[in-house]
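Before going further, learn to read the protein records used in this course. A complete example follows; check for yourself that the lines match position by position.
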Amino acid sequence: MKFPFDFKFKSQEKTTVVSEVKKEEMAKVPTEAKEPAMSSKSTKPNSCYNLIILDESGSMACVAAQTINGCNETLTTIRKAESEDALTQNYVSIFCFDSDLKHSRYIVENTAIEKVEFITEEDYQPGGCTPLNDAIGHTCTRLHTLIKNDNSASVVVTIITDGEENSSTRYSHSQVKQLIERLKEEGWVFTFIGANIDAKATAMSFSIESSFQFVQTEEGMNKMWELERKSRERYHENLRRMKGANYESDDERRRAMRMLNSGYFEEFSRITPRNVSQLKGNEVFVFGSNLAGQHMGGAARVASSRFGAVFGQGVGLQGQSYAIPTMQGGVETIKPYVDEFAKFADAHPELNFFVTRIGCGIAGFSDEEIAPLFAGCTSLPNVALPQSFWNVLKK
């Protein structure tokens, strides 16, 4: 059984756009998406498109000020990401939607972040109904038309709404779901933030894996935008780390990007749970093995029965597990395998690794002997260690 995230790496170059969408374009059928005009190329080899699909229906009026402030905080976060990544040019689109086509529009579309100004109450004026399907289908189809041949592009789509679909005329729910599923396969990341609806259930109905439920009050909106800011910072940090890995094939890069859809809003705990009984799609169970790959007891048995560990394979990635041999001699014989694991984890920021107390069971080693081997993992944000290892490493 091969692990679906066993990647190699590379990268390419891309151009971009700055354009305004005419109000009549929203009424076009899905297959009639028009390609936006192109602007000058960025000197940076990679591009990241930040698409925010923002509900501007009448029910959002009570939190209009918080929405404007929060959106501006997000722009600040993207500017910070831009300043910290010499390889990636960030572009921003903010699309506000309601039932009146005069208002369903881009405030800004695919504009380099350094040219984007903060939005004001003149830009965001809630009123009307909620054509959610049309908003998602229109904007994503339009952006895909622009970047479909750009192998360097990454896309994060944030959908914010306080109500259910009630007025779309061009895109059905099933069309939008199928569109999202196809774009996720190309590496797009989708997030859904909702109030006054079941955000998780609504997101899942669209095949969106990461969602957040917010309360439509001043305090609730502030909390939501703070979470969005922190989550976007983690996303851009993952992008920076992935750029350093250099993908060898476009398919492998897309598969890696696809993993970023899972747990977007969840901060990864650096402490491995005592009992890991299930994993998300981007999580890996790290266990102690033997070189023969005889996964008969302890964490190795769990890895074999639940997480795809391969009988006869004693080292490395297999299924949603990673084997580090511990039965072949002293601590010094384990260290090279731990170092190899650390390099692998560093090269795969899209994956989160739960390290168990390897070597501290049948192999007979103590936490004091094994924990120091993982000192190089303490700086890796996607590696969790047992509490007993952290206790040793923090001394």
